[in-house]
TrEMBL record:
Residues 132-248 form the GFO/IDH/MocA-like oxidoreductase domain. The keyword Disulfide bond does not apply. This is Dehydrogenase. Belongs to the Gfo/Idh/MocA family. InterPro entries: Gfo/Idh/MocA-like_OxRdtase_N (IPR000683), Gfo/Idh/MocA_oxidoreduct (IPR051317), GFO_IDH_MocA-like_dom (IPR055170), NAD(P)-bd_dom_sf (IPR036291). Residues 4-122 form the Gfo/Idh/MocA-like oxidoreductase N-terminal domain. The keyword Oxidoreductase applies. GO terms for molecular function: nucleotide binding; oxidoreductase activity. Keywords: Oxidoreductase.
Length: 344
C-alpha cells in the first residue's frame, strides 16, 4: 500500500509535535511533504527543516500529490479549514476541539459524509499511560465496582499563549484541557449521562474561563468530578478513584500512586479512636491494617499511541476509526451543557 502524502496546516506548537510523532514512527506509511502557516517565522522553521513551504491554503488544496492534511491552527479556524480541505478531496486529521459548538461540528461532519473523505479528530490522550491505568482499574475491578472518579489537571501558570485568552479564537480551559478529560471520561464510562453541574473559573480576569469544575452523574450511578485549574500552586492528584472494595490514587503523569484494597472483610476490626485535632474520632481512623492491603497500581497495558497507524488503516483499508466522530460529538454536547450549567 502506498504512503499517504501529508501536509500540515498550522505549524505551531502542536503542528510540530504531530510531525515529530509521525517521523518517530519508522514503519508508519505517512510522508510529511510540507506545511502551511500564516506566520513567516514558522514558514522559516519549516524551510530550515527541509519541508516544502506552501504560500497559501489554496496551494495546499490544489496540490494533487497531497492526500491528507492536519489542521493544527487556533480553534476558531478549524471549521472553515476542514470544510475546504474535505471539499478539495483531502482526508483530514483535525486538532481538538474541532469547533466551539455542536452545530458547527455538525456542519463539518455533514461535509465529511457527503465527500466520503476521512475526518478524524486527534484525541491523543486516550493513549496517556495514566488514563490507561484508570481504564484498567475500571474494566478489571481491582478496587471493586467503581462508583466515583475524580480526574484533574492543575497548574499555576495561568492560561498559556495568546489566542487561548480570547473567546473569538475558542480560548479558555474547558475547550482546551476540558475536551481531553471529558473525552477520556466518556470513552471510559459506558452509560448515558443523567445529570451535569458545573462552575467555570474566571480568577485571572480573562474573558474566557481559566478552569472549571464539573460534576457528572451517569445513569449507572457513577459520579465523576472533572477539574481543570491554572491557578493551583499545589496540585491535587491527577486521578482519585473509589470502588466498592478499595481506593486508588494516581498522583501525576509520572504514574506514582497506590491502591488500598480490602483483603479480608471478615477480619475487619472495629476502628480504634485516634486523636484528631482537639478531639477523638473512630470514623476518620485509618482502615484496619489486618483487613486491608496497600498495593502498587496495576501496570498500564503497553498500548503505544496508534492514532496515525489507525488513520492510515482508515484511509487505506476502511478500518474502524479509534476516535469516532459520534464520540467527538458526544463530548461537544457535554461541553455545551457545562457552559450552560455554569452559574454566573
Ligand atoms: P500555536 O499558537 O502554537 O500554533 C498555531 C499555529 O497556527 C501558529 O503557528 C499560527 O501562525 C498558525 N495559524 C493561525 N491561523 C492560521 C491559518 N488560518 N492558516 C494557517 N496557519 C495558521 O497553537 P497550538 O498550541 O499548536 O494549538 C493548535 C491546535 O492544536 C489547537 O486547536 C489546540 O487546541 C490543539 N492542541 C492540541 C493538543 C493535544 O494534545 N491534542 C495540544 C496542544 C494544542
Amino acid at each position: 500500500m502506498p504512503a499517504i502524502n501529508f501536509a500540515v496546516i498550522g505549524y505551531g506548537g502542536m503542528g510540530s509535535y504531530h510531525v515529530q510523532t509521525i517521523m518517530a514512527k519508522e514503519k508508519l506509511q505517512i510522508n510529511v511533504v510540507g506545511t502551511y502557516d500564516i506566520s513567516e517565522e514558522r514558514q522559516e522553521v519549516s524551510k530550515q527543516q527541509g519541508y516544502k513551504v506552501y504560500q497559501s491554503l489554496e496551494e495546499v488544496l490544489t496540490d494533487d500529490s497531497i492526500e491528507a492534511v492536519l489542521i493544527a491552527t487556533p480553534n476558531d479556524s478549524h471549521k472553515e479549514l476542514a470544510i475546504r480541505a474535505l471539499c478539495a478531496g483531502k482526508h483530514v486529521v483535525c486538532e481538538k476541539p474541532v469547533t466551539m459548538t455542536v452545530a458547527e461540528l455538525d456542519e463539518v461532519l455533514v461535509v465529511a459524509k457527503e465527500t466520503g473523505n476521512v475526518f478524524m479528530v486527534h484525541q491523543n490522550r486516550r493513549w496517556d499511560p495514566d488514563f490507561l491505568i484508570a481504564k484498567e482499574l475500571y474494566k478489571k475491578g481491582q478496587i471493586g465496582d467503581i462508583f466515583q472518579i475524580e480526574s484533574r489537571v492543575q497548574g499555576a501558570n495561568g492560561i498559556p499563549g495568546d489566542w487561548r485568552h480570547e473567546k473569538s479564537h475558542g480560548g479558555g480551559m474547558l475547550l482546551d484541557w476540558g475536551v481531553h478529560l471529558l473525552d477520556q471520561l466518556l470513552f471510559l464510562v459506558d452509560s448515558p449521562i443523567k445529570n451535569v453541574s458545573a462552575d467555570l473559573s474566571f480568577i485571572l480576569g480573562d474573558e474566557v474561563d481559566d478552569g472549571f469544575i464539573s460534576y457528572i452523574t451517569f445513569e449507572n450511578g457513577l459520579k465523576a468530578l472533572i477539574e481543570v485549574g491554572t491557578t493551583n500552586y499545589i496540585k491535587l492528584p491527577r486521578w482519585y478513584i473509589k470502588g466498592t472494595e478499595g481506593t486508588a490514587v494516581i498522583h501525576d503523569w509520572d504514574l506514582i500512586g497506590e491502591m488500598v484494597v480490602e483483603s479480608d472483610k471478615k477480619n475487619i476490626q472495629a476502628p480504634k479512636p485516634i486523636q484528631a485535632g482537639v478531639g477523638l474520632t473512630k470514623t476518620m481512623a485509618p482502615p484496619s491494617e489486618e483487613a486491608t492491603d496497600k498495593l502498587a497500581l496495576p501496570l498500564a497495558p503497553v498500548e503505544p499511541n496508534s492514532f496515525y497507524q489507525n488513520f492510515y488503516q482508515v484511509v487505506r483499508e476502511k478500518a474502524e476509526p479509534i476516535v469516532k466522530n459520534e464520540e467527538v460529538r458526544a463530548v461537544m454536547i457535554l461541553i455545551e451543557e457545562i457552559f450552560k450549567k455554569h452559574k454566573k
